[in-house]
Structures are given as structure tokens and as C-alpha cells.
Amino acid sequence: MKNIKFFGSIPAIVTPFKKNGDLDLPALEKLVLFQLEGGVDAIVVVGTTGEATTLNEEEYSLVIKTVVKTVAKKVPVIAGAGSNDTKKAVHLSRLAKKAGADALLHVTPYYNKPTPNGLVLHFKEIAKMVDMPIIVYNVPGRTGSNVSPETIVRIAREVPEVKAVKEASGSLNQMMEIINEIRKNGPKDFIVFSGDDAVALPLIALGGQGCISVVCNEAPKLFSKMIHLALKGNLEEARKLHYDLLPLMNINFVESNPIPVKTALAMMGKIEESFRLPLTFIEDKNRILLEKILKDLKLI
Questions:
Q1: Which residues of the chain have pLDDT under 70?
Q2: Which pTM was predicted?
Q3: So which residues are the catalytic ones?
């Protein structure tokens, strides 16, 4: 298994489509280079922000291969491979490994809402079948169930391949419970990432190690600078950048992600404004607000 040091500013990168809905791989390559130039520390591909649920297996592998090739080993590539079917999660993990990914991001199973024992067994099976570092993704707003701090810590201890959690519960108290228990009783190399941009700075102040981010797509240089300042303990400068970016962080979720961020990237000339149903174009009132925020940040 690869030994990867997870930390810092990690964009959950969008998947660009052409107007006809096909993959736009040249735009994806340019977007990856834009992130690397911005100083990111890893890239998450084919996650929620990458509309992974609308990709067929060939497209899924092709997107990962394209990102891996463009990154050229400069930073780790983390592939979303989650499913509420453990066998499918294993299958996607194998595809991601074959495509060259360095690590996996696994959302906790949605809809069927497994028990804590079921969650532990789910991750044990993935780890047994695919020898790769794993990041657990806890996002109750999409899965329909929250994974308790106790269960996250149990997974970390019983499945050593699980190296981190992307915490998007919105509860700083929950994140603190995980960090505090890990700090006292291990495993010492387990990392807590923010899954919400607006919580990244306070989480780092509390012992988190970075953020798997949406806003990094639009502003990789600013966001990465904020994260790196915070990790170095320079909270005053980091706080200024946090508040500069906060309006963009917030409007990125005014409609379902990735509708606003892809609209913003299209305004910036990075990608075509194209989605796959059931996602569709942003409402006009939100488009106006988004454009103003991008202009205020001098991104357009």
C-alpha cells in the first residue's frame, strides 16, 4: 500500500462536459493544471462534485486516467469510489486503482443506512479486496445518516487502511470529539479533513489537517494560501482570506453542488456550462449573485 501524507488544500474537482453532454477531457486537463498552479496538495476526482453518479464505467476510468496523467505524480490523486453496495464499492475501487489513483474516497453507504457494525464490515471488505489508502466521507445531508465519532474512531482502529475522514456533518463538536479521541488514544496518523469549506479554518485551529474543497475549484491559489497559513499557525492572515472567500463558499451551495461551482467556472472561461440530468442550470437570481461575487474576488 502506498504511504501517502494526507494534508492541506484538496479540491474535489468538477468533471467538465461538452454542450452535448460528452466528457470534455481537454478542459479537465486545463482545470487540473489550474489547481496545480494554485498550490494544491492533492486532487479528488470523480466525487460528488465530479458528478460521478452520472458517469459510466468507461468514463469513470477515463476521467481518473486523465487526471493522473496530467498531475504527473506532482500530488496524490484520490478517486471517489463509494457505493451503498459493498461489492460495487470494491469494483469501483479496483477500477480506480487500475486507472492509477493513489488513494480512495469512500462515502458511507447511503439509503440503506447500515449499522455501525455494518459500516466497519463494509470498510474491512474494501480494504481486504483493494490494498489502497482510504478516506471515509461522512456527509449526512446526502447519505441520510450521520456516522458517530465513536464509529469513525472504531473504523480507524479496526481498518488500518483507513487513514482519514472527510467530515461534512457540519458539527464542529463532532469533529472535535474525533480529534480529541484520536489525539489521546490513536491511531496517531489518522487525519480529520473538513468537508465544508466554511468550516476548514476553525477545524484546523482545533487540530484538523485541511479540507477537501469545492471553492478550491474556482480559487485554488487563495484557498490553498488560506489553508497553508492556518496549518502554520498564522490564523490572523488565514482569517482574512477566509472572510474574503466566505461569500463564494456560501453561494457554492445555494443550489445543489456542483451547479454553482460549474456555473462559476464557466463564467471564468474554464469549462462549458454543461450538466447531466437531473442537475440543470442555475436559477437566474442566483446567477446574478454568483457573478457579482466572482467580480468582487476578481476571478472574472
A1: none
A2: 0.96
A3: 137, 166
